[in-house]
Amino acid sequence: MATLNVLAVNCGSSSVKASFFSNDGTRLDFSYAHIQGNDRSCFERVIKQLLTDLGSNIPDIIGHRFVHGGDISDSARLVDDVERKRLTSIIPLAPLHLPSNLLALDVCSNYFKVSQIACFDTAFHYRMPTLSKRLPIPQSFGMQRFGFHGLNYAHIAQTLPSIIGEVATKKIVVAHLGSGASLCLMENLQSVDTTMGYTPAGGIPMATRSGDLDPGVMVELAEHYHSEELRELVFHKMGLLALSNEESADIQFLLASKSDHALFAIDYFCRQVRAAIGALASKAGGIDALVFSAGIGQNSSIIREKICEPLHFLGFALNLAANKSNATRIEKGEKPIVIIPADEEIEIVRIIKKLNLF
Predict the structure, then answer these.
(1) What DSSP line would sit under 49-115, residue for residue?
(2) How far apart are the C-alpha atoms of 28 and 20, rounded to whole Å?
(3) Would residue 142 be called left, alpha or beta, if left means φ above 0 and alpha means ψ between -120 and 50 degrees?
(4) Residue 169: how many other CB atoms lie within 10 Å
(5) pLDDT for the residue 100
């Protein structure tokens, strides 16, 4: 595997990131935003642009981030016809993401005649205890808490010991805060609980997803919307977009706006993140470190400050100057508060190397 050129593709619902890892140790990063829905022609344009940007750099293997892998323990699988059909069958578990993931895989197959590997966000949480995985509904439905953002959580588990030493193996809360957002409780660098559930729509509020809701709200909405309309509402019209009275789903836009609606949405978001940190700390009997990651978590000092300000009761205090400069260590006191940039792409490469398929 050390001699292979690996292309890691991280395809979201509205953007594509990719990184080319050359066999000489160099890395090239690419980012393409503002993809409209799951339109195949749009994705083809993006992949063609990626081809142009890659120049003479040709991959020997391609790894794709897949948001959902279903109820399997495998961190990744070689995508053959059987696996392609299985991934299609679980689209209802992540309808905002899996169609995009599959489109990227299909388009890449038209331009690169190499093996492709699906790497699953859900695998990191597979061994969570039953107390965390079980949902309070009849087991006959076959539904459970899966958890998401696992590739980045795995990357953080790999990186954190080099930053805070042995504390990393204790009780840690990681806040992956981006357009999609979740938190994970780790012990011994393993996932033991997480805020997202059966689908990536649960947990804390996100850009266009509400997070957890009173089930009665969904029953009431189901009385007024057909299933496809309800799915569109749940995945595209809730969260920060709804809380800001449709001003924006982008938290950076809301921070710049300073309208009453924007400020309300920001305060609501930060309050719910704090609540999730407190809940995970309560489950663990206290936590020893806090990690911020992903677009909002690693880039917005204001959001981090709003989240951390009331957390003195858990022993956390911010160094305001370090926080403002986005330093790696931003605590003032004994308990570490850390910023680790999200990097699913490097985790995809690490997983592929462990597979030993070639």
Answers:
(1) HHHHHHTT---SEEEEEES---S---SEEE--HHHHHHHHHTGGGSTTTHHHHHHHHHHHHHH--SE
(2) 5
(3) left
(4) 17
(5) 81
How many residues comprise the chain? 358
What is d(CA 208, CA 78) in angstroms, rounded to the nearest whole number?
Answer: 32
Provide the pLDDT for residue 1.
42
Residues forming a β-bridge with 193: 185
Q: Are strands 15-21 and 6-11 parallel, antiparallel or unpaired?
A: antiparallel
- Residues linked to residue 291 through DSSP beta bridges, in sequence order: 174, 338
pLDDT of residue 358 exceeding 60: no
pLDDT at 321: 97
Please choose, from the candidates 124, 96, 272, the residue with its C-alpha nearest in 3D space to the C-alpha of residue 184. Answer: 124
At 285, is the secondary structure helix, strand, or coil? coil
Tens of pLDDT along 57-110? 889 999 999 988 888 889 999 999 899 999 999 888 887 788 888 888 888 888
Q: What is the pLDDT of residue 228?
A: 87
DSSP percent split of the chain into helix, strand, coil, nearest 5:
45, 20, 35
Task: Give 189's Cβ-side CA count (13 Å radius).
Answer: 16
Q: Which of 296, 312, 294 is nearest to 304 (CA)?
A: 296
Type of residue found at 96: L
- Which residues are annotated as catalytic? 121
Query: Rounded to whole angstroms, what are the CA distances from 211 to 203, 218, 232, 257, 273?
Result: 4, 12, 14, 23, 11
Q: In the structure encoding, which two tokens stand for residue 292, read together?
A: 């911020």
Contacts of 84 (CB under 8 A, 6+ apart): 102, 105
Residue 7 bridge partners (DSSP): 20, 62
Give Cα 301 to chain centroid, integer Å.
Answer: 20
Mean residue pLDDT of the chain comes to 91
CA angle 159, 317, 281 (to 5 degrees): 65
Q: Tell whether the model's pLDDT for residue 171 goes beyond 90.
A: yes
